[in-house]
Amino acid sequence: GAGVSQSPSNKVTEKGKDVELRCDPISGHTALYWYRQSLGQGLEFLIYFQGNSAPDKSGLPSDRFSAERTGGSVSTLTIQRTQQEDSAVYLCASSFSPNYEQYFGPGTRLTVT
Amino acid sequence: AQSVAQPEDQVNVAEGNPLTVKCTYSVSGNPYLFWYVQYPNRGLQFLLKYITGDNLVKGSYGFEAEFNKSQTSFHLKKPSALVSDSALYFCAVTRGSGTYKYIFGTGTRLKVLA
């Protein structure tokens, strides 16, 4: 079946602009995660959704970052007033249930100029 | 607090030799442990996991890992390395109950030399 998809694959934006990143998880997966990876380095947890529960937003680096998940499926990560330090690859992952293995999307490479 | 450490930024091994990529963790309660691999310009792929049961778990591409509770380790191993195993490897831990946040290690770059 289809894996996790993310769009766009690449995004170049000017400093100060807002961007929206989209994630389509695997159908039936209740858990959805967003991570940030800089220059092939480690993964920085951003936010976690599980079913209809309140999301765990503890990893969001500032109030410029927000995310929502509509209908328990598609998720959108929004970054307002982008800064150059926001440049990174943003990865989305989903899993069948919490503590199961995660399946990752190909990522969105964000470049803020 | 949960944490996971991958003490080696890079591991070099000759093709055909056994390889080990180290991971240690700290978590209260029962750990769930995972290894993921990231090939160049590709997304992360799940390799294997330990939840409970046999301490030696086998995964994709001939990899295995051994859970050692006393040493709080979960090292990744392969008996005979291939050049195609060259990639970035991540260890991750979460708890068996309560919070479901994964904590990823900083990654270890494996380079298999022909």
Layout of secondary structure:
The complex is a heterodimer of chains A (113) and B (114).
Chain A: E1 5-7, E2 10-13, E3 19-24, E4 31-37, E5 43-50, E6 65-69, E7 75-79, E8 88-95, E9 103-104, E10 108-112
Parallel strand pairs in A: 2-10
Antiparallel strand pairs in A: 1-3, 3-7, 4-5, 4-8, 6-7, 8-9, 8-10
Chain B: E1 3-5, E2 10-14, E3 19-21, E4 24-26, E5 31-38, E6 44-50, E7 56-58, E8 64-68, E9 73-78, E10 87-95, E11 103-104, E12 108-113
Parallel strand pairs in B: 2-12
Antiparallel strand pairs in B: 1-4, 3-9, 5-6, 5-10, 7-8, 8-9, 10-11, 10-12
Q: How would you sum up this structure, described in words?
A:
The complex is a heterodimer of chains A (113) and B (114). Chain A is an all-beta fold and 113 residues long. Chain A has no helices and ten strands. Chain A has strands spanning 5-7, 10-13, 19-24, 31-37, 43-50, 65-69, 75-79, 88-95, 103-104, 108-112. Chain B has strands at 3-5, 10-14, 19-21, 24-26, 31-38, 44-50, 56-58, 64-68, 73-78, 87-95, 103-104, 108-113. The model of chain B has no long low-confidence stretch (mean pLDDT 92). Chain B has 114 residues and is an all-beta fold. In chain B, the strands form three sheets. In chain B, strands 2, 5, 6, 10, 11 and 12 form a six-stranded mixed beta sheet that branches. In chain B, strands 3-9-8-7 form a four-stranded antiparallel beta sheet, with no helix packed on it. Chain B has a two-stranded antiparallel sheet with strand order 1-4. Chain A binds chain B through residues 31, 33, 35, 40-43, 45, 48, 50, 56, 58-59, 91, 93, 98-99, 101-107, and chain B through 32, 34, 36, 38, 42-46, 49, 51, 88, 90, 94-96, 99-107.
